[in-house]
Each structure stands twice: as C-alpha cells, then as structure tokens.
Design goal:
Number of strands: 3
CATH class of the largest domain: Mainly Alpha
Number of domains: 2
Strand order of the largest sheet: 1-2-3
Helix content: 55-70%
CATH superfamily of the largest domain: Ribonuclease III domain
Number of helices: 10
CATH topology of the largest domain: Ribonuclease iii, N-terminal Endonuclease Domain, Chain A
Shape: flat
Structural class: mainly alpha
Strand content: 5-15%
Distance between the termini: 33 Å
Order of helices and strands: HHHHHHHHHEEEH
Length: 225
C-alpha cells in the first residue's frame, strides 16, 4: 500500500503525470518529474545501505550489480504494481486510455517520485521503513537467482549444466510507434517456455526473459527440494 503522508499534497504531487496537467491547466503546473529525480537518488542510497549491511562478505562490484538489478525500470514497475500504484496516478485521458496505468516506465518513474515525496515529508528513516518489506524478498531472489549477473549467460550455464540444452529466444510481440517500440520476448528450454520479458529493444527484452526464467527455475527448485 502507499505510505501515509503528513502532507498529502506531496503525495498528490508525486502521483501527477505531466499528461494530467496538459488537460487540467487550472491545476498548479508541476508534475512528478523533479520528485522522480530526488527519489532515484534516495532509492540508490537506501538499497545500497541495505546491501552493505546485509551482505558484509560481498565485494563492491557485486553490491553494485545487485543494486542495479533491483532499481531497473522493470523491477520498480513490479514493486509499483504490488502496491497498486497505477490505480492512484493522475493521468490525462489520452495517457490513461492508452494503457498508462500499466506502462512499465511510467510506473517506475512514479514509484521513484513517491519515494522522493516521502523523503521530503518524513525523512530517510520513513523511506527505509516503507521500502524494507518491499525490497527484502526481491533482493534475496536476485541474489539466489544471480539476477544481478548477465541473465542470458547465467541461464545458459544453468540450462546446459542441468538440462544439457541451450536456451533459445523468440520475439512474440512488438507494439507501439517506431520511436517507442515495446518488444516481448520468450525464452524456451527445449519446447518449454521458461520465461518472458519486455523492453524497448529485443536485447533488453531477452535479458528480462532470461531473468524471469532464472527466478522461476530457482523457485521451482526450492519447492521441489
């Protein structure tokens, strides 16, 4: 759920997309982009501090790669969906009608804006308390699945070692205008679809599909055990 604010206007600000202001000129002209900038910096610190304390044996490079795996747009949009952030966004009719409430980059940006607003409202400790239960399981999954590594390489190593098969990738959907394409790629191990991912390029979508497959395979392995 969304955090509770002492100053609700800050939360409203964080949830306001520029498309809403375009259609509501009577509203004070400020969207959530500056708060997104602040929230990005606060998020990097909170995640870095968490990793530093939780994984004292990890080297700097590993800590950095895990943080990068968590704060990418795909993962932040998943966290945003978990708290149903899309339902609360103030969007213009056009943006809302074209799927803005479920758009990955828009959700990720708004999630960072909420973090920035919460920091201004109550400080770093409040941000840490709110984020801790959201990021704990995600970080543990990333570490277990080695999701901070090159996911395609990690999946290939896993598949060849345990299944003696090299994964193959297939683009299954392509949507959006030429300047804002969104690709969906599935990865198969043999004839079985192991994972699926989306992104602004086929390469990024393939990496997301491999990461999804690794996460599913780790969870399945843990369940079987």
């Amino acid at each position: 759920m969304l955090p509770t604010f002492k100053n609700p206007a800050l939360l409203t600000h964080a949830l306001t997309h520029r498309s809403y202001l375009n259609e509501h000129p009577e509203v004070e002209p400020e969207d959530n982009e500056r708060l997104e900038f602040l929230g990005d910096a606060v998020l990097d610190f909170v995640v870095g501090n968490w990793l530093f304390r939780q994984y004292p044996d990890f080297a700097e490079g590993r800590l950095t790669s895990i943080r990068s795996a968590l704060v990418r747009a795909e993962k932040l949009s998943e966290l945003a969906n978990r708290i149903e952030l899309g339902d609360h966004l103030r969007l213009g009719r056009g943006e809302s009608g074209s799927g803005g409430r479920t758009r990955q980059t828009l959700l990720a940006d708004a999630f960072e804006a909420v973090i920035g607003a919460l920091y201004l409202d109550q400080g770093m400790r409040a941000v840490q308390r709110w984020l801790a239960p959201l990021i704990k399981d995600e970080i543990e999954t990333i570490v277990a699945a080695q999701g901070d590594r090159d996911a395609k390489s990690a999946l290939q190593e896993w598949s060849q070692a345990l299944r003696h098969i090299t994964p193959h990738y297939r683009t299954i959907d392509e949507a959006g205008p030429d300047h804002a394409k969104q690709f969906t790629v599935a990865v198969f191990i043999g004839s079985e679809e192991a994972g699926r991912g989306a992104g602004p390029s086929k390469q990024i979508a393939a990496q997301a599909a491999a990461a999804d497959a690794l996460q599913r395979l780790i969870i399945t392995s843990d369940t079987d055990a």
